[in-house]
């Protein structure tokens, strides 16, 4: 490259070193701290990781809630089906009762009809009028 413009002796280097040591803390306060930037970046990374963990936890909770709701709905469906079957058996029993009562009324109607016919025939035969 080339020869330096001036050569410094140990005494000049000592003076420069003392001057830099004396003023370096003042100069560093005016500069942005690289350590602070690293701290902020690390903090941001931790916050992002925590948010990711919370999202995953929320997803797990939503899935477990969904499964719980599905099991409850299935239990309700089974209960409604059993109630439906019970109602069907009761309606069939009521239908059988109505059929029995209907047969009873039919036989009663035929008996009364035959009785009135027999009485009318006997009255006609024996001339009660």
TrEMBL record:
The chain crosses the membrane at residues 108-128. Keywords: Coiled coil, Membrane, Transmembrane, Transmembrane helix. Residues 37-68 form a coiled coil. Gene3D superfamilies: 3.90.20.10. It comes from the Bacteria. This is DUF1640 domain-containing protein.
């Amino acid at each position: 490259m080339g020869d330096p413009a001036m050569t410094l002796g140990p005494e000049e280097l000592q003076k420069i070193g003392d001057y830099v040591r004396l003023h370096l803390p003042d100069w560093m306060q005016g500069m942005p701290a690289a350590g602070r930037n690293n701290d902020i970046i690390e903090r941001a990374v931790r916050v992002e990781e925590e948010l990711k963990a919370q999202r995953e936890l929320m997803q797990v909770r939503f899935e477990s809630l969904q499964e719980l709701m599905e099991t409850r709905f299935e239990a309700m469906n089974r209960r409604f089906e059993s109630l439906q079957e019970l109602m069907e058996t009761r309606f069939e029993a009521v239908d059988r009762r109505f059929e029995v009562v209907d047969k009873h009324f039919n036989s009663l109607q035929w008996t009364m009809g035959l009785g009135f016919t027999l009485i009318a025939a006997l009255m006609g035969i024996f001339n009660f009028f």
